[in-house]
Structures are given as structure tokens and as C-alpha cells.
Amino acid sequence: MSAKLRSTISKIGYPLLTLLLLLLAWQLVCSLGNVPKYMLPSPADVVAAFQKDWRLMLGHARVTLTETFIGLFLGIAIGFLMAVVMDRFSILRKMVYPLIVVSQTIPTVAIAPLLVIWMGYQMLPKIVLIVLVVFFPITISLLEGFSSVDRDTVNLMRSMGANRMQIFRYVKLPNSIGHFFSSLKISVSYAVVSAVVSEWIGGTQGLGCYMTRVRKSYASDKMFAVIILISVISLVLIWLTSLIHRLCMPWDRINHKRHSHPY
Amino acid sequence: MAKLEVKDVTFSYDNVTTIIKDINLTLNDGELVCLLGVSGGGKSTLFHIISGLNTPQQGQVLLNGEDITGQTGRVSYMLQKDMLLPYRTVVDNVALPMIIKGMKKKEARRIASGYFEQFGLEGTQELYPAELSGGMRQRAALLRTYLFSGDVALLDEPFSALDTLTKGEMHRWYLDVMNDIRLSTIFITHDIDEAILLSDRIYLLTGKPGTIADEIVIEEPKPRRKDFNLSEDFLRYKREIISKIGA
């Protein structure tokens, strides 16, 4: 067995073992302690609920995912544009940046109902909420990446006669890819959560909506099932982001290998 | 006519502290000229001016007789660190100056690849800089400098980051390559041995603000004899330089 495989197994194996033990304990508490199902469904109940309702859940998941993707895409585009403009015109950065930071202290759950009042029960308020949540980490991280370029590298490019666009394309942009992806990982999970939250508040479709319905009918087993589904969706999206990250930065692996320490 | 001429250049940041004063120097075609002086003496500032990154308060920089004061993109400049972009492969790094000048990427890569063997970089085209040794990175940076302009190159302490053994090897290799490509070069160093070994002429930059104190011509023919750096002539040059810069 290769060392890499062994380390992967031990990395996944140990937390998996903990999880299994927890599930076992949970099942035992439910079976032996005679807890009513609407208070705490057992893992077996949750699995059964998922088996029964999975078609419905996936239908809702499709709506949530659509909102998430549109919101993410727009959020990234707006975040990118803002970062580029603020990097280019420092006066704009001085004017806007502090306000953006302060604006982030407004809790999402407080804006969501307002958005519903302004924009109705369709997809629009959900997408807007996701955009509001996503663009911030993207803007901040890209700005950080743009401005952390090595001054001497920029001087070298200038000495070669490179114009502003070329310096951006060959130095600033590639320099900030790493920053971008670490913030994208955060943004992806925020986006899913925001979609669900805004569906709670008003809407007819989506996992958040489904969640509100099963909560109102005290179907805790379905509640648990949908919570797990949302977690899984987030995890898959984060994993996908990491995968794209690795594909976009083939040099990063080499640099890591070179600089990694034996301990 | 001189390849490159620096005429009466004076430079100060914010017109307060004068860094260099009344600098005059010439570089002839195919010549290897060294700018020797203590750290912080304004050597890099002078390079910033010749490369066009800074504009002097007074004086001119002439390339083939044409005034290029304050113009970037005319002479190639290799800064102290190798500055290879970590996210570009070696060939893409080396081809970058040609791409910036507007050449098609494919064509630039093809031209760049043609020099890999001569620069001791064969087989490294598709590697990333992090996979190269220090000496190879430096050679890649030199190739990039050369491909930017085969006319005049400014090298700021090109070998200072290397260990002594690699350095000696690089010196031999460098003299060989220069023999072939005849790139007119000014390089900065604070290593007296390196200056004597590589240069045709040495300018001594001393004082605050920095001025050219003297010019020393190394008469030793190129290629240098094998034990030149251990010879009496070598030591004579070294003594002369040390007494003049007061080191």
C-alpha cells in the first residue's frame, strides 16, 4: 500500500469512525429511550424519510441549486469588476471599501424579508441575497491579490515596456488566483445557506421552502433528511471548487512540494 | 559611436536627497562593463534611469545616439532576484518580453525554445521555475533578458544569490555565452573578483551622492586564461580597485 493511500485512509477513516459511533449512539438513544419521533427521529427514520421523499427533495434541490449558481456567477462577476475598478482607481477604493466592510455587519436574515417585500416571491430576491453575500469575500480577496504583487516584478514588466493592461494580465491576475479560490470556497457555502434562508422567508419552491413545510407538520425525520441533503450539496460544491482550483493552478502543487516540510 | 551613453545624469528622490550626481559613462558594442561600488551607492538607481523606470532631473540617456531618457522597453533590465513568474512555465517566462512587444505566443515560444540549449536549459521548457536549480533559474532569467533586447542589457547583481561554487561555474558559462552572442552589457556587482574576471572595463561608483570615481580597463584578453583569477595581474587590479574605493 502506498504511503499516500495510507495517509488518505487514516485522514478519512478516523473521523468516519467517530461519525459511525455517534450515529450508533443516536440510534440506541432513540430505540431504547423511547423518544417520540417528532422530537428526535432515529437515523433509521431519517433514512426512511429520505427514501420516501427523495424525488420531491431533488425537485426542490434543483431550484435551490439554480439560484445558487446564478447568484454565485453574478456575485463573482460583480466582485471581480469591483476589485478591478477599485484596484485601478485608488480614490474609488478609498471611497467604497470602508462602506463595503461596514455593510457586511448587516445580518443576512435581516435583509432577506426586505428583499421579499421589494421583489416578490420568485427567484429574484434569492439571487440578489446570494449576490450580496458572495461578492464581498470575492472583492476583498481579489483586491488583496492584486495589491500584493511584488513591486520589483511590476518594475521588471514596466522595464519591458508592458502597459497597465499587460501588467494586469500577466502579473496581477495570475497572482490573485490563489486568493480568489480560497474566498470562492467560503462563498460557495455561504451561497447555499443564503439560498435556503431566503426560501424560508418567502417562496414556493426550493429546499428552504420544503424545510418550512416539514417543520410546520412536525415531520422531524424529513427535516433531518433535508438538512443532511443541504450539507451534502455544500460539501460537493466545495469539493468541486477545490478540484477546479487544483486544475487552474498546476504550478501550486510543485511549489508546495518544494517548500513543504517533512514534519 | 557608443552603443549606450549616459550623459551628466543627476537624480534625486523628491529633489531632496541627491542619489547620484553627474554620471557619465559609455558602453561600446559587444562590451561587458561593470559598475562596482558599495551597497546603497546608487547603482540600482542608475539602472532604473537607464531602463526608463525613473526620469533623471538632469542629463540624458542615449541608445545608438537616440535620446531614450525616461523611455521603458528599450534596454533589457534584469533585476537582482530572478523574478521568474511562478505560474508560468520556463518557456512562457522566457518568451514573455516578446509577447509583451506584441508577438504571437506560439511564435515567441518557438524563438525562445531555440536558445534553450545554448543557455543550458534544454528539456526545461515545460517545467515551472520552482523545479529548477538556482543556477538554472538565473540562466533562464538571463535568457529572458536577452530575448527582450539583444542590444543592451543591464544586469543588477546577476550572480549574487548563488553559492560560491555555482557562481564560479556561472561565470565560466557566462563568459562563454557572451563570447557567442556579443550582448552589450552593463552589470552591477559589489564583488571585486567578479568584476575583474568578467569585465572589459570597470566603473567605480563611490561617495554620497554617488559619482564615478574612476574607470579601470582590464587588459587581459578574452577568453580569459584558466588561472587568471590567481595571477599576479589579477591581484594588481584588485589592489588598485581596493585602494581607489577605500574598501
- CATH topology of chain A, which one? MetI-like fold
Question: Helices and strands of chain A, in N-to-C order?
Answer: HHHHHHHHHHH
Distance between the termini of chain B: 34 Å
| CATH topology heading of the largest domain in chain B | Rossmann fold
Instruction: State the largest interface.
Output: A-B, 23 and 25 residues
Oligomeric category: heterodimer
Contiguous helical run count of chain A: 11
The count of β-strands of chain A is: 0
Q: Would you report the number of β strands of chain B?
A: 10
Rg of chain A, rounded, reads 23 Å
At CATH's second level, what is the architecture of the largest domain in chain B?
3-Layer(aba) Sandwich
Query: CATH H level of the largest domain in chain B: which superfamily?
Result: P-loop containing nucleotide triphosphate hydrolases
Q: What would CATH call the homologous superfamily of chain A?
A: MetI-like
Provide the CATH top-level class of chain A. Answer: Mainly Alpha
User: What would CATH call the class of the largest domain in chain B?
Assistant: Alpha Beta
Overall residue-averaged pLDDT value of chain A:
89
Number of domains of chain A: 1
How much of the sequence lies in strands of chain A comes to under 5%
Instruction: Please tally the helical runs of chain B, counting DSSP H or I stretches of 4 or more residues.
Output: 7
Mean pLDDT of chain B: 87
Kindly give the count of domains of chain B: 2
